[in-house]
Amino acid sequence: MDAGGFQAQSDEEVHYETSDRVCLQSSASAELQPIATMGADLLPSWQKLARNAAEPNVFYEHWLLDPALKHFSTHSELSLFLFWAGVPHKSDLLGLLPVGPSRQFGRWPVPFVQNWTHHNSFLGTPLVRSGFENQFWTALFKELDAKNWPGFLHIRGLTVGGPLDQALRAVCARQKRRCDLVHSEARALLESDLDAESYYAETVRSKKRKELRRQSKRLAEMGDLKFSHYVDDADLSAWTDDFLALERQSWKGQEGSALDCSDDTRSFFSEALAGAARVGQLERHDLRLHGKPLAMLVNFQSAPGSFSFKTTFDDTYARFSPGVLLQLENLKILEQPHIDWMDSCAAEDHPMIDSLWSERRHIGRFSIELKGLSRTVMFRGVRLGEDLMAHLKKREIVDIAQVQT
Phi, psi (5° rounding) for residue 187? Predict the structure, then answer.
């Protein structure tokens, strides 16, 4: 398969040396499959794709996307874009992205097409087989150009400067298709060759380390203080209930944003943890005093990456910084040989995690022009308005990909 088309390689030209080698049987193909028709037959191909993705994204893996689609708002035209090595459902899956039309672009009543995410989804990078990034975007654009959905394509939550971003820009440049980075933010990332102790000493100033030692000592003086770490489903249901209850009594519960504040988010969280445990991608940490949880943390792993999904702590013990103390335990992820990095999934400039993790991951939103006169006019009108608003509000978009070059 060449960089810009869909011609299949012969068996002798297959590049992969792992047990998950891709099998190209005939001309590659693409389809937009309605979410409502998604069946269990897709699961083996989906799992294989996730294991070999150019950029890991747990939020588009089946065990996390399924409960999200079940419990959060969707629409009848929402589809899975599937890019196959050959005949659909009879060949290797090379790419996957939930995508569909929307009618409201921010505050503007403008129709457009975008990848589907939700409030508890912190990354929108497509799942694409490593080595097929250019072909994926080429196939997606071809499918959307021919589709009767109005407007332009908006991709949110894409890792800026990553393989999918690089391929996106390359394909758009080759096709003379305008592609604009319209928003970016930098969030904490944990990535280092150091062990946990060395990283902590190098990253956190000595005064802060001294204060945390004092807080830990004072907390331990109150009784039986215990850190626990789980990578299985041991007592998962009870642990999940403890997490939900702890978060509900925090400021999130007071504001109505805790997971336990609605049936949908509560069920989504419980099913997501159970699904991650089934496939061996769940990691849990907690800190307890006399068995009572003071801080709890959920990570989702997708080697070589990991995602710090949710954390909560008991506000009544805030003077002891239990959430920070638990994050210090979480630094031990640096010593797991199959994990190279952890995404904090936190907001930009988060005061707690930014003080502990020194690396940053840039996440952006991209608007891409689709073919058709009305689409072009709409796209350029929206972009003109966005640029004007950015100028008036003096907003700057940091494009780390341009900085790196």
Answer: -125, 160
Token pair for residue 342? 């952890």
Using 50, 70 and 90 to split pLDDT, how confident is the model at 390?
confident
Mean pLDDT rounded to a whole number for the chain: 92
- Tokens representing 317 are 């013990």
Max Cα-Cα span within the chain: 71
8 A C-beta contact, residue 49 and residue 94 = yes
- 3-class DSSP assignment, residue 302: strand
DSSP states of 6-26:
-PPPPGGG----STT-----S
Q: Are 304 and 341 in contact (CB under 8 A)?
A: yes
Contact criterion met (CB below 8 Å) for 320 and 218: yes
Residue type, 159: T
* CA dist., res. 366 & res. 172, Å (int): 12
DSSP 8-state assignment for residue 105: B
Cis peptide before 56 (omega within 30 of 0): no
How many whole angstroms separate alpha carbon 271 and alpha carbon 262? 14
Residue for token pair 């799942």: 127
Residues in the chain: 405
Task: For 118-146, write each residue's pLDDT tens digit.
Answer: 999 999 999 999 999 999 999 999 999 99
pLDDT of residue 13: 32
Q: What contacts 361, CB < 8 A, 6 or more positions away?
A: 159, 186, 187, 188, 189, 343, 344
Query: When comparing pLDDT for 259 and 400, which is higher?
Result: 259
* Pair 338, 303: CB distance under 8 Å: yes
Give the list of residues 6+ apart from residue 293 with CB closer than 8 angstroms, or none.
242, 243, 246, 286, 287, 314
222 SS3 class: coil
For residue 73, what are its two tokens?
């708002």
Q: pLDDT tens digit string along 195-241?
A: 999 999 999 999 999 999 999 999 999 999 999 999 999 999 999 99
